[in-house]
Design goal:
Layout lengths: L7 H25 L2 H24 L6 H14 L6 E3 L1 H12 L1 E4 L2 E6 L2 E7 L4 H5 L6 E5 L2 E2 L7 H8 L6 E7 L7 E6 L1 E4 L3 E6 L4 E6 L6 H14 L4 E5 L8 H11 L5 E6 L7 E4 L10 E6 L6 H11 L4 E4 L7 E7 L5 E10 L14 H5 L1 H8 L15 E3 L5 E3 L8 E2 L9 H8 L2 H12 L1 H4 L4 H7 L4 H13 L6 H23 L2 H8 L4 H6 L3 H9 L8
Parallel strand pairs: 11-12, 12-15, 15-16, 16-21
Antiparallel strand pairs: 1-18, 2-9, 3-4, 4-5, 5-6, 5-7, 7-8, 10-11, 13-14, 13-18, 17-18, 19-20
Helix pairs in contact: 1-2, 7-8, 8-9, 13-16, 13-17, 17-18
Amino acid sequence: MSETKNTKAQIRLPIILALAISAGIWIGATFAEPKSNQNDLRAALYKIQEIMTYINRDYVDSVDTNELVEFGITKMLENLDPHSSYIPARDASLVQSQLDGEFDGIGVEFGIIRDTIYVVAPLTGGPSEALGIQSGDQIIKVDGKTVAGTGITNRDVFELLRGPKGSKVLVDIKRKNQSELINYEIIRDKIPQYSINASYMVNNEIGYVKITRFAATTYEEFKEAVMDLKSQGMTKLIIDLQGNPGGYMGAAINIADEILGDRSLIVSQEGKVEQYSQKAFAFRPGMFEEGSVIVLVNEGSASASEILAGAIQDNDRGLIVGRRSFGKGLVQMPIDLSDGAELRLTIARYYTPSGRSIQKPYDSNFEAYERDWMERYEHGEFFSADSIKFNDSLKYETKKGRVVYGGGGIMPDYFVPLDTTFSSAYVNRLFNSDSSREFILDYSNKNKDKFTGISLEDYYKNFEVSDEMLQELIKIGEKNKVAYDDTDFKKSKSYLKKLVKAHLGRQLYDDDAFYMVINDINEVYLQALKLFDEADRIAMATDLHGTE
């Protein structure tokens, strides 16, 4: 029997790795943990070192040591809680860019349609817009290498087109009605990303602000949006947090500070280490401490969204409208690792001003935790508030004595059931297959002259999606293997027209157009418009049980 021999480098690698990890953790543990814990930690680290050495030296097949370590780290963190996580070095910069508020790249919104990169829109102020790259352009080659028809993924596109500011990338583009590829040399630049996707006046009094995530620039974006809306006469404010997964806690705290006054408590957090236990209070004169406020939430509103909604609710500052939020009340600290990877470690629990933890229950069955959204749907929670049962031991009171509950998300003051009357599986397939995006790109390019000089307000009030437009969308769907369903189509026709108009508006104008149109079929938003008297009643109540 032949014996597989390892090189000295192969044998040393896991030992050096284990020793380095052991040394780093031992130094931290020596100064932070009692002696008994130090001994337990040393024993555990030595066991890992032993196992890695045996695997690398004696295991029957060759292994990727780093891959094995990363797998082990992931499984180890899964035994802690659902939100502690490890982000490999190859993903860390991309994940971080979603929160930084900007990234280095060529400045296009793209989509992959039939295995080809399509430019949905050049981003305003970016290098692609400056060079004349247009919506509907197809990116065929990058740096001389063909990328069309190669099974390209979103990650591949990020890796190819993003890069340091000032670096160059060569892009060959196919444009409709031109037989030859157009060659562009693009110098990458800083590309801003916005977390407030829309802000507009609903009428002469009500302003609307849509926050899609809490990033590094969100607070400044919010102040700018509110200042602009106030200059247009806003006295009532809707903050839309539906589907907002969270982000930086500091952004949510700062926004709450602009709305709350009188040194109101915004959020508190408690951790095992004293430095992670702290409270945040409103301390500055806010931009909108007097006007009426309604916050929209649903099952997709999580983390920092729940901090903001909880602060408004517990301080009786405004009305929360929608459906019960996600229920994430754990605080993660990002820790940069030496190889460029990132550890996001849960270091505290946060509590709303009334003392509620809104973290939903979890155990080692993370699959069940992830399925919670579907279980809520199947249980009927999205359709009836009566299906939600709260434990009396988790009862709390707001500043003015209203009853609220902890133990899993923010329950709105006014529940709005999910309306599925007009949606259908066929419409979902049209949009999930990218058929709708292909149609909208094609239609907007063919009809640019038609919309020249038409204002966003005119588009919103007067433009109608025709039956002929829907027929063209159906044809594109069939080309993309989305079989026509007559029953679903008839059921969803008016709904489909609104969706197409919203997405076309985004393509022709901006995200304001999208949300102005889509909110006409957003049941939570439509109910909120009717509830400002109730929001004022809560804010103006003076005694402990909310009566005026």
